[in-house]
Specification:
This protein has 326 residues and is α/β, with parallel strands linked by helices. Helix content is 28%, strand content 23%. It has a seven-stranded mixed β-sheet, sandwiched between helices. α1 links the parallel β1 and β2. It is elongated.
């Protein structure tokens, strides 16, 4: 049985970019180490998978507290180690802490398609189909279903599921679920100042479809009640109404409002492309508009998503287009 050193904190990084790693390590060197504690670092090179590399680092260290980092994650809060220790010691049921998370993972298992909480800064542009707003945790901490994988701090060792994840994505979803299966809390704390800066990557990141399907299969118990339709609401350049959006939300449905206003009277190829991109990335079940919008019909027909238009203008000229027959 492994004897853990309760005064040791271990950083574990699977390196896939040397320049990113150098900057990451520079920021780690600036962190304040709590009195009576020591730190150690394991950089795993050339690991076949992220889960396998993390298991290698976890097994090599006897530190009670471990922090799993992506090499492009910069820990900018110099007092973060003391903050983490205080949180873990305040509640032995807290198993894992992240700087960003989702209280309810969307049914497609892609956390950036749902409501997020925490604090984050990203240098890259946000993808238009994702939320640009992240709700801050005001006080204490918020218990969440999953945390983002660029920064994951633990006080207990649970095996990373390399038996099901043989790639480099969805390790954060898997490990969050593993901690909950073991009876521990996964949390995102209040952060008065930014804890972690993620220097690269779009908001949804690059994910492996095969890994996503494996997560959906392995953790079916977590997705059993996530059967509500995911709706993309598209506004036109002519109509400013928002009553349907509010009604859907009151019904408890998940509604994402498209960030661009689409021209209602003619099909514009660039707008169709934007819609197709959003539909493919967002995995929506239904698209809704006020009045019929031909470009939306084309995009939905292309992707195979149902389209519902609430028509109230009469006559509505867009209903006399060939796209109305889709």
């Amino acid at each position: 049985m492994k004897l853990y050193d309760e005064s040791k904190i271990c950083f574990i990084i699977c390196n896939n970019h040397e320049q990113d790693l150098e900057e990451c390590l520079l920021y780690l060197s600036l962190l304040e180490v709590p009195e009576g504690f020591e730190t150690e670092l394991f950089v795993i090179e050339n690991s076949e998978t992220l889960a396998k590399g993390y298991n290698e680092g976890m097994q090599a260290s006897n530190a009670k507290y471990k922090i799993y980092l992506h090499p492009n994650a910069l820990v900018v809060e110099t007092k973060i180690l003391q903050k983490l220790i205080d949180l873990f010691e305040s509640d032995k049921q807290i198993g894992m802490i992240g700087s960003v998370g989702s209280a309810s993972l969307p049914k497609d298992a892609i956390m950036w398609h749902g409501d997020m909480c925490g604090k984050v800064y990203r240098a890259a542009d946000w993808n238009k189909s994702c939320h640009t707003e992240i709700a801050e945790v005001e006080n204490g901490y918020r218990e969440v279903e999953v945390i983002q994988g660029d920064f994951m701090a633990t006080q207990y060792d649970l095996p990373w599921r390399e038996d099901i994840l043989d790639g480099w994505s969805f390790h954060d979803v898997s490990h969050s679920f593993e901690f909950q299966r073991a009876g521990y809390k996964v949390i995102v704390p209040a952060q008065k100042s930014l804890w972690v800066q993620h220097v690269k990557g779009r908001c949804y990141g690059l994910y492996d479809e095969e890994q996503r399907l494996k997560v959906l299969t392995e953790y079916v118990d977590f997705f059993a009640n996530k059967d509500k339709p995911r709706i993309l609401f598209v506004h036109s350049d002519k109509i400013r109404l928002a009553g349907l959006v509010g009604c859907f939300m009151e019904m408890g449905l998940e509604v994402i409002e498209f960030t661009h206003r689409i021209k209602i009277l003619k099909v514009i190829a660039s707008e169709v492309d934007l819609l197709i991109e959003a539909l493919e990335e967002g995995r929506f079940d239904l698209v809704v508009t006020y009045d019929f919008i031909a470009s939306v019909s084309v995009a939905c027909e292309n992707v195979g998503v149902k389209y519902y238009s609430w028509v109230y203008d009469s006559p509505l000229l867009s209903l006399y287009t060939k796209e109305a027959k889709n």
